[in-house]
Amino acid sequence: MNQPQSVDSLDAAMRLAIEHSYQVKGTTYPNPPVGAVIVDPQGRVVGVGATEPAGGEHAEVLALRRAGGLAAGGIAFVTLEPCNHYGKTPPCVNALIEARVSMVVYAVDDPNAIAGGGAGRLQAAGVQVRSGVLADQVAAGPLREWLHKVRTGLPHVTWKYASSVDGRSAAADGSSRWISSEASRSDLHRRRAIADAIVVGTGTVLADDPALTARRGDGSLADRQPLRVVVGMREIPPEAKVLNDDSRTMVIRTHDPMEVIKALTDRTDVLLEGGPTLAGAFLRAGAVNRILAYVAPMLLGGPITAVDDVGVPTIARALRWQFDGIDRAGPDLVLSLVPHGGQG
Ligand SMILES: NC(=O)c1ccc[n+]([C@@H]2O[C@H](COP(=O)([O-])OP(=O)(O)OC[C@H]3O[C@@H](n4cnc5c(N)ncnc54)[C@H](OP(=O)(O)O)[C@@H]3O)[C@@H](O)[C@H]2O)c1
């Protein structure tokens, strides 16, 4: 590193580690997207790293390699507790101990029984350990989907929809293309490029003929394409864009959201982009972990709402969610919600 950057607090160094972890989100399966930063005893950043694709190096090892001898006596900041087991790579705690860092600061405890125990190993070797720094930010951010997967064994489902400000997801004639702005669409394409699968119902395929691919601003295909999943009993015409060669497609002939989720247990990050029928079925089944709503400043009125029946007969039984992010994309609002009182 030519120009070492200085960090003046634990939070600042962890924020840098978080930034690096975001850069590899979607590329590390089955490993978590982790970021690491090594700071020398003078507070200068001397190495950064983020998890490589499966079989590659872990974040700490890359950051230590870049720091070289400057890591000795310094502090390692990692978004996840360093692992303590031999997988495809040796335990990261070994590398930290060998590099003679004086302290390891991490955000989130490793929930994985096999890889966990890193903190104890480090302490036993005389390395100071501090945990929980920006833990909520990491758990709700870069590691959200991976933590859900480790804890439940199921993929994390984000229901994404675009609606007018009056909650309509299509005009009265069924047309829904371009409700959201170009800025929202590029945001969505970036989100798709890190997802493992996109799920829609046959209704969306038949109404809109979407390609369901991740594209760059110039229209070219992103390097990484999510699996496309179509749910429902009806036949899809062979010329449908969702069946083109741009990515793989799975058709699941069911109406049971849990069957869909089970068919995707080898995935971590699933985007539900279906219409109101499928969205309602997933919400009724409690199978949505996050909502991502692109809300456009337009009114459409009419009968096609963002979601059909969600199984709420009266206001006291409303499904309660809370906002965990409110952003802008061009003229639109991007609302992120998680179940009320929980991480989903
Ligand atoms: N603005 C947005 O974000 C957005 C996104 C997507 C779609 N849309 C709009 O939504 C409209 C299409 O709505 P849609 O509701 O037909 O789309 P959909 O929810 O994607 O597909 C509905 C189909 O899903 C299948 N399905 C799967 N599980 C089901 C269950 N538990 N119960 C009932 N059906 C189930 C059924 O297919 P079978 O009948 O084949 O069994 C059903 O007809 C279009 O106008 C489209 O433009 C808007």
UniProtKB/TrEMBL annotation:
Binds 1 zinc ion. Its EC number is 3.5.4.26, 1.1.1.193. Residues 8-130 form the CMP/dCMP-type deaminase domain. The keyword Zinc applies. NADP(+) binds at residues 162, 178, 204, 208, 275-281. Its cofactor is Zn(2+). Keywords: Hydrolase, Metal-binding, Multifunctional enzyme, NADP, Oxidoreductase, Riboflavin biosynthesis, Zinc. InterPro entries: APOBEC/CMP_deaminase_Zn-bd, CMP_dCMP_dom, Cytidine_deaminase-like, DHFR-like_dom_sf, Eubact_RibD, RibDG_C, Riboflavin_Biosynth_HTPR. The active site is at 60 (proton donor). Substrate binds at residues 176, 192, 212, 215, 273. CDD domains: Riboflavin_deaminase-reductase (cd01284). GO terms for molecular function: 5-amino-6-(5-phosphoribosylamino)uracil reductase activity; diaminohydroxyphosphoribosylaminopyrimidine deaminase activity; zinc ion binding. GO terms for biological process: riboflavin biosynthetic process. In the C-terminal section; belongs to the HTP reductase family. Converts 2,5-diamino-6-(ribosylamino)-4(3h)-pyrimidinone 5'-phosphate into 5-amino-6-(ribosylamino)-2,4(1h,3h)-pyrimidinedione 5'-phosphate. This is Riboflavin biosynthesis protein RibD. It comes from Mycobacterium paraense. The lineage of its organism: Bacteria, Bacillati, Actinomycetota, Actinomycetes, Mycobacteriales.
